[in-house]
Amino acid sequence: MTVYNQKSGNIKVFHAFPALEEGETYAGYAALIAGHELPVPAPDTLCAIGTKHRKVEKGRWHLFTPRHKPEETLQGHLTFALKYEGLDLAVLNALFDDIDPQEVANIVRAEPTGAYSRRIWFLYEWLTEATLELGDAQQGNFVPLINDSLQYAAAPRDSKRHRVRNNLPGTREFCPLIRRTEKLDQYIAMNLSQAAVDHIGKTHADLLSRAAAFLLLKDSKASYTIEGEAPPHNRIERWGKIIGEAGQRKLDVDELEYLQSIVIADSRFIMPGLRIEGGFVGDHDRTTGMPMPVHISARPQDLESLLSGLIETYQLLGKSDYNAVLMAALIAFGFVFIHPFEDGNGRIHRYLFHHVLAEKGFVPKGLVFPVSAVILERIDDYRQTLEHFSKPRLDLIRWRPTEKNNVEVLNETIGLYRYFDATKQAEFFFECVEETVNKTLPEEVDYLTKYDLLNDFIKNYIDMPDKLVDLLIRFLNQNNGQLSKRARGKEFHAMTDKEVQAIENKYDEIFHRGE
After folding, report:
1. CA 71 to CA 68: how far, in whole Å?
2. Are 423 and 385 within 8 A, CB to CB?
3. SS3 91
4. Three-state secondary-structure class, residue 284
5. How many domains does the chain have?
6. Which of 122, 172, 485, 506 is most buried, by CB atoms within 10 Å?
7. H/E element holding 321?
8. What DSSP state is assigned to residue 157?
9. Does residue 449 lie within any of the structural domains?
């Protein structure tokens, strides 16, 4: 008989959670993970039954009141989880692999019209691809699979067999989920897409075109910088051009491989296309050369299934009204966690942000959001967002080093990349989009407006070539509106003190006092 009421101190997977106190017991997913010793990452939060008659949060625990206590059965804890915690497909997938199918069939037979029993039935058959010996449901209203007060749902597709509306934002092969949070609801309510359109509507077409060109290069350069690379300018321009075309071509595996060929100019030292060996992100021990991974990539034999699932999910969400920023987070972070290529994954991951936003019509035509530039400014938060996925999974992946000092994964891991909670990633990406729309884009347009004012003043004041005027303004920007002694002694030695003073005063008027 499965025991569902163990204490948290006995289970390694709950090591980051505070210990439960006397009288407090597991509920929902916590009970299922502990009772079946499921090899899954611990969810961000778990539930337990407390001793107080009010709900309490204790670290990552949500303590419910004694009246919420479920029956100590598979059905009791599954029902509690679906009702109060939403769907955790990673837990459910591992659970259904561990139990006898008859346990699920018995739940359905006991409550053939029950809303939760039918959801459990659907989830079992959907995840396992096995059909239970049960006749199709004949009664009961169609019920949504995802409770949209707990998680963000996609457009529903009816399953007549279970009388369930499948509103999962993905397919069996790839289906991350995002919890509904106050932060995400606030960002969605900002209607950032319209805010971007409003900014552009106030901007002259020529000015917008110049801003877009600059932001394109800025984003391309930042994406390489994040990877610790400083390629020649022509490579930055070439990748910037590709970013500018985001959303215009069909996204499939061939397209992803084409993007890799653009990112990696010299493929002599890597094998292009999908990996045929293991992969990891991290360092090597200086003495032994042993891998020291901070992230282990999906196994090469799983890549075809994972990527086809990612593409199908992208197509599914693209046809629905699923929020564009949430969709971009699911697809782009899902891709980089799978890490299908030997090299180029990070830059393609950030390209996918652009692609999804452009194709969903979030980004106004002629404009690229420099999200990579914003990510670069928030690089520590970005790394923590990536580690939030990778770190809990390292303990669940068994691997050994290869002769090439790579990693070879020894256990089944595909579920770790198919089903994950992308809430932290979605919140981070929405923060970047909000900063881009409300700060980066207006600041660039504002800068160009002021640049033009100073440019016109200098040309009317001194007969100077365009290139030299541009250099002068850049030098002033670099030195807070003052022309350095070095510049005055070299490039601008012919200028008089009076001319320099006049231009510095005008710079101060335009850039510092906003005149």
Report:
1. 10
2. no
3. helix
4. strand
5. 3
6. 122
7. none
8. E
9. no
Q: Which domain holds residue 253?
A: 182-438
Chosen domain end from 166, 191, 223? 166
Reported in sequence order, the residue ranges of 339-441 that DSSP labels E, i.e. its strands, are 399-401, 407-409
Shared domain for 326 and 272, answered yes or no, is: yes
Instruction: Please indicate, yes or no, if residue 443 is contained in any of the structural domains.
Output: no
Burial track 246-283 (b if 16+ CB lie within 10 A, e otherwise): bbeeebebeebbebbebbbeeeeeeeebbbeebbbeee
Is pLDDT of 11 > 60? Answer: no
Of all residues in the chain, the percent with pLDDT exceeding 90 is 60
Q: Longest Cα pair distance anywhere in the chain, in angstroms?
A: 94
In a shared domain, residues 314 and 414: yes
Q: How many CA atoms are closer than 13 Å to the CA of 362, on its beta-carbon side?
A: 30
The pair phi, psi for residue 88, each rounded to 5°, is: -120, 95
The answer to whether residues 336 and 393 belong to one domain is yes
Cβ-count burial of 505 within 10 angstroms (0-12 exposed, 13-18 middle, 19+ buried)? exposed
In a shared domain, residues 210 and 323: yes
Q: Please, are residues 185 and 159 in contact by the beta-carbon 8 Å criterion? A: no
Question: Among residues 105, 137, 166, which one ends one of the domains?
Answer: 166
pLDDT band per the 50, 70, 90 thresholds, residue 514:
low
* pTM of structure: 0.89
**Average pLDDT in the chain:** 89
Which of 313, 338, 341, 342 has the alpha carbon at shortest distance from 328?
A: 313
Residue 372 corresponds to which amino acid?
Answer: S
Residue 27 within a domain: yes
Does residue 1 form part of some domain?
no
Asked if residue 146 and residue 50 are part of one domain, the reply reads yes
Rounded to whole angstroms, how far apart are CA atoms 43 and 428? 18
Whether residue 167 contacts residue 154, with contact meaning beta carbons closer than 8 Å, is answered with: yes
Site of tokens 């199908």: 312
154 and 202 within one domain? no
Q: Of 94-108, 251-265, 299-313, where does mean pLDDT reach its minimum?
A: 251-265
Which pLDDT tens digit goes with each residue over 339-383?
Answer: 999 988 999 999 999 999 999 988 876 667 788 888 888 899 999
Alpha helices in 339-378 (DSSP H): 345-359, 371-377
Strands 56-58 and 61-64, sheet pairing: antiparallel
